[in-house]
Amino acid sequence: MPEKAINQYIDHTQLATNTTFSDIKRICNEAITYNFYAVCIPSYYITEAKKLLSNSHVKVCTVIGFPLGNTTTPVKAYEAKQAIEKGADEIDMVLNIGLLKSGKLQNATQDVKDVKNAIGNHVLKVIIEVSELTNTEIIQACKVCLEAKADFIKTSTGFSKGNATIEAVKLIKETVNNNAKIKASGGIRDYNTALEFIKAGANRIGTSSGVAIVTKKENTNHNY
Asked: How far is it, in rounded angstroms, from Cα 65 to Cα 79?
């Protein structure tokens, strides 16, 4: 069984291109109702979410360099710094996978370091997009994140060709041990699946199906 109630593993997520203020209000209200750990939203809506969540313990998480990860490092760092200034509690940035695959591991590490430096003590999760990587590259990505002092390694954006897998989470866990936490995201839509990822080593679950997970109901939402 999980170490804590499953709702406290969930980053309740709304990152679709057509996200509206109504969507933000809905997921914030759901996050309060079900006491989720955080909402994960586009940075444009941080201020609105902070207002809606002001009387709760729910944190605000946003994404940086999303979903491709190949914007320049100064742009990522500025985007992250501005998000924190607007009220974000946690940052999920996308790793520059092209740098990793090109063997430019120092550059990939600096990319993460600069974002971490820009946000200070706030939590940084690095999305490594496991569906784009070989097992060897997943291990390399984990080492990049550890060297850059990232707090979490996150499996997926949910916008690529594949989602989180149990095998990838286990490999990440074997690589980082307890030196970083793991966020499994992408394709996790029901209670049993979420539980399997937690058993494999996930410390956080990124999903737009948080309500279905905690209520153990069937979910017809196939996003994220």
From this structure: 8
CATH of the domain at 108: 3.20.20.70
Q: Look up 154 and say whether it is catalytic.
A: yes
Catalytic annotation present for 23: no
Catalytic residue among 113, 116, 125, 154: 154
202 with 169: CB under 8 angstroms?
yes
Q: What is the DSSP string of 168-219?
A: HHHHHHHHHTTSSEEEEESS--SHHHHHHHHHHT-SEEEES-HHHHHHT---
H/E stretch holding 13 reads: strand 10-13
Which residue's entry shows tokens 């979420």? 194
Catalytic hit among 76, 113, 125, 183: 183
Residue 224 lies in a domain: no
In a domain, 6, yes or no: no
pLDDT in tens, 139-173: 999 999 999 999 999 999 999 999 999 999 999 99
Instruction: Enumerate the β-bridge partners of residue 93.
Output: 64, 126
pLDDT tens for each residue of 89-132: 999 999 999 999 999 999 999 999 999 999 999 999 999 999 99
199 included as an active-site residue: no
pTM, entire model: 0.95
Could you tell me the residue range of the domain that residue 114 belongs to? 14-181
| Catalytic choice (11, 76, 89, 92) | 92
